[in-house]
């Protein structure tokens, strides 16, 4: 990078001209970037919408995540919220704020990550608009849209006694990867180290560039899911939300939670899909059974109560840590 | 404020519980906050979408803007982009990131500003979802939606030779107010000063809490507007965009631009609506004639070419200035 290739030197319009060709187009786009707003098709007369921000510091470190990772994860985490409603992701808008001395290649990498995540996880979904700003804190705010294809949305509140609890995607993998980064991808002073992180890529990709099972959201809806949500704060916290909304209890089978049930319960950021299905039906897609819905409240592991544990951004992030 | 009333001490869920009751509800909301995503009605099978971020530093100073101002302006600037398509604003989603030591009252004030701006400028529009994050830089990212009510969107590209150029809303008022803030709302060291800013409120409100003519967007579409856009970067820059998209030239009448035509041409952030209309038709709403569309390219004032001037966030913000 030379100084002449920073956002400040190149300027907003020229940066946009370099980024636009990298962004994926959306099949539902009726009018794309270039006017005051985009126009997107909503064939069934409704659209699903969710928004989620990624912030330098609490959400990522530039020594660990590549620019491509940031775009990929920003797309993946939002696509997962759309999928958790049983919808098909159709479009994204992206507001990005970066320091003026950032290289243009940072934004190009983020755009390529958005493109590749859409292509891999939600073909047909693309970026229909956005906003570029300057900020001392690199910030990526994605808003994602989806099409319910005429079906009711799958809410958190529909689970019933006797339903099967099933999950599609990994459990605890993102948290395990984050632990590896904090323990091994640091220098002798405990600071994030890019060279060490690169060597650990295979063991940390679940955290840095997760691959949530987006297409299984639609399959769950078609397969009769009674309730569903995205696992972003960990199975224990998120499943307790589903249990509370449905006014039931959830009992997990520890043998179905892998070699480390506590990691599976506590780990956040997997962006897997948790859903409940009526008993006796085949589970769609890659869903696998991990427990059953019972009368009561709260969550249980092999019949014993599980205490909640998870991530609160305001309580849990220590800005001084890096 | 006590330390116990900060975002970090109160925690995300409790903060959300305090903010939700303050947010305006949306008439088009089918499913609101509380699940993985919201569901919004799109009666004509399409929706308009735009996104815009406000960042502490380049976009506002906390010594000058109240929390209510921040919510108001974040809503107003996004509503204006929806209106500029000829659409009726229906819903917002809001992603907000703030330092953990921020008082909860900051977020409450922002929520009240969002609520009051929607009520005043776009009745029926409300907040259907959002995201709270921690960041060292206070950041508000709004995504806004609109309904075209079956009409084509009014693009930048439809102006034709002979059309009337008209504007609804102020010209240069936001820039004049910003100049007053930089010159008079500072202490002896040139730093933003809250007490001085409070005394200047009447002369600075156009910058701090603008009131763009949102309902005139729909009226322009109904009234036959051939092209329209939101004046966010200044009349000179934005009108040049319309001229380029329409492959025509614009000639402004200096007598119609007020006492300070150069301020009207150069000033940004007014969020007024610029539109072109076929000649001989009554101008709708509060639109007033400021010039006419001519053959050629670029923009002119009383027949003389106007050079562009405006705001590029990457070039023009000096982070060290405060």
CATH class bucket of the largest domain in chain A: Alpha Beta
Oligomer: homodimer
Can you tell me the number of structural domains of chain A? Answer: 2
Q: Looking at CATH, which topology of the largest domain in chain A would you report?
A: Phosphoribosyl-aminoimidazole Synthetase, Chain A, domain 2
Secondary-structure-derived class of chain A? alpha+beta
Using the 3D structure, state the CATH architecture of the largest domain in chain A: Alpha-Beta Complex
What is the helix/strand order of chain A?
HHEEEHEHEEEHHHHEHEHEEEEH
Secondary-structure map with pairings?
The structure is a homodimer of 322-residue chains.
Chain A: H1 7-10, H2 12-19, E1 29-31, E2 38-41, E3 46-55, H3 67-83, E4 88-98, H4 104-121, E5 126-134, E6 139-147, E7 164-168, H5 173-184, H6 194-199, H7 201-208, H8 215-222, E8 227-231, H9 235-246, E9 249-252, H10 261-266, E10 272-277, E11 288-294, E12 298-301, E13 304-305, H11 313-316
Parallel strand pairs in A: 4-5, 9-12
Antiparallel strand pairs in A: 1-2, 3-6, 4-6, 7-10, 7-11, 8-10, 9-11, 12-13
3D architecture notes:
The structure is a homodimer of 322-residue chains. The first copy, chain A, is an alpha+beta fold and 322 residues long. Chain A has 2 domains: 3-147, 2-Layer Sandwich (60s Ribosomal Protein L30, Chain: A); 164-313, PurM-like C-terminal domain (Phosphoribosyl-aminoimidazole Synthetase, Chain A, domain 2), CATH 3.90.650. In chain A, 32% of the residues lie in helices and 25% in strands. Chain A contains 11 helices and 13 strands. In chain A, strands 8-10-7-11-9-12-13 form a 7-stranded mixed β-sheet. A 4-stranded mixed β-sheet of chain A has the order 3-6-4-5. In chain A, strand 12 and strand 13 form a beta hairpin. In chain A, helix 3 runs parallel beside helix 4 (104-121). The model of chain A is unreliable at 315-322 (pLDDT under 50). At the A-B interface, helix 1, helix 2, strand 2, strand 3 and helix 3 of A face helix 1, helix 2, strand 2, strand 3 and helix 3 of B.
């Amino acid at each position: 990078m030379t100084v002449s290739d920073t956002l400040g030197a190149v300027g907003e319009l020229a940066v946009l001209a370099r980024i636009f060709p990298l962004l994926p187009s959306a099949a539902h786009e009726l009018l794309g970037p270039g006017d005051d707003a985009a126009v997107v098709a909503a064939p069934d007369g409704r659209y699903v919408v969710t928004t989620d921000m990624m912030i330098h510091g609490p959400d990522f470190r530039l020594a660990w995540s590549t620019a491509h990772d940031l775009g990929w994860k920003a797309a993946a985490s939002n696509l997962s919220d759309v999928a958790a409603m049983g919808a098909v992701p159709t479009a994204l808008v992206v507001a990005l704020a970066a320091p003026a001395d950032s290289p243009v290649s940072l934004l190009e990498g983020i755009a390529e990550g958005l493109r590749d995540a859409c292509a891999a996880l939600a073909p047909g979904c693309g970026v229909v608009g956005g906003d570029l700003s300057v900020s001392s804190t690199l910030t990526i705010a994605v808003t994602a849209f989806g099409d319910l294809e005429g079906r009711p949305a799958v809410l958190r509140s529909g689970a019933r006694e006797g339903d099967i609890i099933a999950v599609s995607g990994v459990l605890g993998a993102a948290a395990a990867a984050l632990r590896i980064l904090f323990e091994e991808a640091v220098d002798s002073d405990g600071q994030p180290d890019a060279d060490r992180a690169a060597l650990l890529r295979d063991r940390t990709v679940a955290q840095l560039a997760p691959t949530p099972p987006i297409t299984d959201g639609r399959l769950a809806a078609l397969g009769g899911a009674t309730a569903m949500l995205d696992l972003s704060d960990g199975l224990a916290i998120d499943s307790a939300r589903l249990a509370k909304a449905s006014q039931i209890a959830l009992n997990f089978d520890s043998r179905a939670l892998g070699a480390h049930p506590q990691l599976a319960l506590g780990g956040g950021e997997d962006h897997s899909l948790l859903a409940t299905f009526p008993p006796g039906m085949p589970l769609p897609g890659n869903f696998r059974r991990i427990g059953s819905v019972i009368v009561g409240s709260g969550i249980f592991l092999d019949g014993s109560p599980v205490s909640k544990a998870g991530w609160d951004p305001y309580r849990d992030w220590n800005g001084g840590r890096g």
